[in-house]
Automatic annotation (TrEMBL):
Transmembrane segments: none annotated. It comes from Liquorilactobacillus ghanensis DSM 18630. The record marks 170, 231 as: Transition state stabilizer. Mg(2+) binds at residues 4, 372. This is Acetate kinase.
Length: 390
């Protein structure tokens, strides 16, 4: 089973391996809401789900109830997307006590994700004690970023002592969609250059040079970079001591504001869900309109900044919830890239086709659905298979 826990969602797929046959798939969205959406094999129901632990138990109960499995011990391995691996993990790994403790420790750097990821590992370990738990790290793909891109202009001693640096996230997604884009365009991935845009409740942009991550928007934590659902993205760091001094806020409160009260939610005052903000903007809400413009502008800035890193751009790739489904956002972003001579085919963009740029566009623009779960399942199968056959 592949588990992909986001800050407010839990995607899942149960595979028969090594055939890569999907037995069942789905997603639980808006976790923490009294109207969470539980979709399984395209059938959706609404129910209250308080947290990720409740979501996992609900999922396993549903698999048994609908006879996707006869008993829980049929699930041999569970692969978990884990946001932050620090410099400790440069590849997927089987999770034992030592690895689990490290993942929990790294929760300080990814407060919206690692605690949720660790909870998933813990719950699955308890409910499925016979299964092997595997962690697949968002940060692993970004270990190729050169030091002049991952270091911050702070005293170098802070990096040496505390490993304060850019780590990047969504690496599994960025790598997957770039490889699929290279296959579609009949390019050698090891020679291909892409700018990939993973746009969901969490969002990041990645500069991929010759098949390797060269730079990315998220940094020391998943809070840096572009504006997101509830996260601010990159802002002036002196805002933090200002809030502390003038509003008498402690570090925990400031962290809560930056991670859970900012972004689309903070500006619009409506929601962290882009669909809700867009509907509000259509109905004339000015703050929602501003929030969308801010979101688009920041993404465009990153894309433009990465063009200086690449001798050529083989493609700009959109993926994840907003990137795959919002033709409006893709259009708005590409309109900011006129200096690159990027041109969309309106009909193809509206239809969410794979190649949405027009024939006379200098840069190809693609929409590639991400499949982090398949990557997770393949890594999990490989590690479980090797362990069983030792």
């Amino acid at each position: 089973m592949a588990i992909n826990s986001g800050s407010s969602s839990l995607k899942f797929k149960l595979y028969e391996m090594p055939a890569e046959k999907v037995c069942v798939s789905g997603i639980i969205e808006r976790i923490g809401s009294p109207e969470a959406q539980f979709s399984i094999n395209n059938k959706t129901k609404t129910l209250a789900i308080k947290n990720h632990e409740e979501a996992i138990r609900c999922l396993l109960t549903e698999l048994l109830k609908q006879n996707f499995i006869d008993e829980l011990n049929e699930i041999v391995g569970v692969g978990h997307r884990v946001a932050h691996g620090g410099e400790f993990f440069d590849r997927s790994t089987i999770v034992n006590k030592k690895e689990f403790a490290r993942i929990e420790q790294l929760g300080e750097l990814a407060p919206l994700h690692n605690p949720v990821n660790a909870m998933g590992i813990k719950v699955f370990s308890e409910v499925l004690p016979q299964s092997i738990q595997v962690a697949v790290f968002d940060t692993a793909f970004h270990q190729t970023i050169p030091s002049y891109n991952y270091l911050y202009p702070l005293p170098y001693s802070l990096y040496q002592k505390y490993k304060i640096r850019k780590y990047g996230f969504h690496g599994t997604s960025h790598q997957y969609v770039a490889k699929r884009a290279a296959e579609f365009l009949k390019l050698d991935f090891q020679e291909a250059n892409f700018i990939t845009c993973h746009l969901g409740n969490g969002a990041s942009i990645c500069c991929i040079k010759e098949g390797k991550s060269f730079d990315t928007s998220m940094g020391f934590t998943p809070t840096d970079g572009v504006m997101m659902g509830t996260r601010s993205g990159g802002i002036d760091p002196m805002i933090f001591p200002f809030l502390e001094k003038n509003l008498l806020l402690d570090v925990n409160k400031i962290e809560h504001i930056i991670n859970k009260e900012s972004g689309l939610l903070g500006i619009s005052g409506i929601s962290n869900d882009f669909r809700d903000v867009q509907n509000s903007a259509r109905n004339g809400n000015e703050l929602s309109k501003i929030a969308i413009k801010m979101f688009v502008r920041k993404i465009s800035e990153y894309i433009l900044s990465y063009t200086s890193e690449l001798k050529r751009i083989d493609g700009i790739v959109f993926t994840a919830g907003i990137g795959e489904h919002s033709a409006y956002v893709r259009q708005q972003i590409c309109e900011q890239l006129t200096c690159l001579n990027v041109k969309l085919n309106k009909q193809k963009n509206d239809d969410n086709d794979k190649l949405i740029s027009s024939k006379n566009s200098k840069v190809k623009v693609l929409v590639i659905p991400t499949d982090e779960e398949l990557v997770i399942a393949k890594d999990t199968y490989k590690l479980v298979h090797n362990l069983v056959n030792v």
